[in-house]
User: Fold these one by one.
Assistant:
Number 1:
Amino acid sequence: MPSDQNLSKDSILYFGHLEEDHKLRKMLDKKLDQFLVTQKLNKFPDYFWGAEKYGLEKSHLFKKLKSEEQTQVLKQLSQMNLALSWYIERAAYTHGAKMILASTTQEEKMFYCQFAFEEAIHQREFENMMDFIPEEDSHWHPMVDVLSDSIQFGERETSIFMVQVILEGYGMYFYKALMDSCLHSELKKVYRRILTDEADHHGSGLILSEQNILSEKSKQEIFKYSQKFLEAIQISGELIKSIESVHGKLSKEEKDLLIEEIGYKRNLEKRIKILKDLLKRVDHWGLSSMLEDAGSFEVKELS
Ligand SMILES: [Fe+2]
Ligand SMILES: [Fe+2]
């Protein structure tokens, strides 16, 4: 299947909605409701994760902010976590659709029908916890670009490896950490439920990747997207941006101190190690050593 036909970034991430009162929308809501563990919240907390999630309780600069400014920072960071989760699920059902078309057996096609349906449910579960609609400009994260590019441009094998092995493998760690530190019982329940499905999605990626014989093209794509993924998990931009939005621009010294006090580098090293261990377990053709040689496992200079 030509991988880039009919797919665009807009069709994977940034598509619109039907009118509120559209009959199909009502029909879908009714269907989805049968499978959800939550309902739309009628009261939204200011934030779902506290300062401890980010180590901010150790930052002098954060502690000096007024209480309402601290709330504002935590609110923005909660929105970023939810928006990233929402975009991941949104892209995942289009991955499922691509795989239905690209698969050649009934079992694979049926599996991906189920896969796509579960991803749609996940997105709705997150939506029920959100009082905002993510926007391309304000809620963008580099991880969604890697995800969307591998779906749009990657060979079938590349998409399976990037979405189901890497993203969903790492995503389980990411979602578990969000679940454990979440302050809200309903959202905790959502992450717990989704994690069960993601374990199957990741598991199926492992099974299929073991069978796949990769073309040179797929290997090159996987190497390129894995490098980008490793860069994407290291960005510190959203944390700095949310603090600057209430404090004003931070000097280099203030940024360095903030990053030091919250233990950000240790956190990045941990994330990289998780990905490195994951890649080692699934590496049949030398991907880990290619990434090692390219310096991709080194912690980048923080900006
Ligand atoms: Fe999902
Ligand atoms: Fe998934």
Note: Residues 89, 92, 119, 122, 194, 198 surround fe (ii) ion (ligand 1) (CB under 6 Å).
Number 2:
Amino acid sequence: MTIEEELQRALSINGLTVSTNPEKGRCLITTKDFFPGDVIISQEPYASVPTHSSGSRCDKCFASRNLKKCSACQISFYCSTTCQKSEWKLHQLECHALKKLSKDRRQSLTPSIRMMVRLYLRRKLQTEQIIPVTATDNYKLVEALVDHMSDIDEKQLVLYAQMANLVSLVLQWPEINIKEIARNFSKLACNAHTICDSDLRPLGTGLYPVVSIINHSCLPNSVLVFEGSLAVVRAVEPIPKGTEVLISYIETAGSTATRQKALKEQYLFTCTCSRCIKVGLYEDIQESAILEGFRCWDDKCSGFLLRDPNDKGFICQQCGHLRNKDEIIKVATEVKLMEDKASASLSCGNYLEASAMYKKVELLQQKLCHSYSLDLMRTRECLLKILMELKDWEGALRYCRMTIPVYQRVYPVNHPMLGLQYYTCGKLEWLLGETDNAIKSLTEAVNTLRITHGTQTPFMKDLLARLEEAHAEAAYKQLPENDYR
Ligand SMILES: [Zn+2]
Ligand SMILES: [Zn+2]
Ligand SMILES: [Zn+2]
Ligand SMILES: [Zn+2]
């Protein structure tokens, strides 16, 4: 049996098959019905690595607690002997290579370089049959990934070549093919996934060659989440037999132009999903103007603005008022200046100052942007995080609540972002003693997150326990002898 046939057989057990489409290349298609919350596929990475920005993390599971550094190479961290043991065959080779590097070379070991080194070491272990090869875990699947080499500019090619040289210096294999490593860097750029925790905070990068077969949609029927380094794809809507499984590669809250730009830049394709084909239609123009455009000059009008054909400014499509171009530029400049200052104080960890400045940004954006504006939403998300740091729970709850109607508008049903925001809301309401509101918010959170995250992870068990606790408290408060006033 060929490796492709073996893959098809492994997938058919899960109700899936791989087919090819002239425009998109490979596609993952269902051969049975899936329902919201069903796991479509799960996969351990072929190679993975934690990213620097999130601090030191376990090389295997990305945990940040109880870390012990490998005493030999001083580069790898592990949270437990279980994680260390499970990585040992790979790390033994990696450690041997890393130990020999000079201090300068060690400094240049970016996560991408480490990831590529690990990819080659894993291939070696499989070729030498030191670790098993399976239908869904083999280097042939990495070979089958698209690399888009012909679409990459000269500068990027030079960079990949330099990175490939560095990988070769680390590995010290005389027979290694530098061009192939460079091509693999290009593959990683458009196929690797960012591994996130349950709260969708990035932890690392992983290459999942079967999950990579799944194509993108800006209105996907499935979602990719991670349990440690395990990638899990779940259905977010009913998916009938014979349908293509689709996930989103990017932040889908954005105008069609913004989404298409992000996809073109990072993944080098033009999206033709059900949302993107509406480009140029009135409803798409309207939605883009609401999400990324300006508000009406009249406070009481909720109309959206489009560029005036004479280029004097922007005209409200509801009341016909014109907002002058110069006035818009003036406010937009003020927003930008204040935002720069605010983000500078935030990066210094000066939360009090940052909160005051972001509130000024918010006021200015309220003058400038539509109430469903994504910029305004991002400012409020930022204020929510800052106020949480400052333990200002009431302020944080106020901002958390303000973001929810925007999330409901910009994210489709069963989107994890909405579930997580309800979870934050519920936690804050619980802290502030608003038990009934906490029950409502946590219930909303459970309804969404049980579909996207399943019910068995520690994260979900914690959420379910909190909801139960809130219900118990509400019942207790209702007893006549427990008068709270
Ligand atoms: Zn670990
Ligand atoms: Zn080591
Ligand atoms: Zn699209
Ligand atoms: Zn108006």
Note: The longest strand covers residues 16-21.
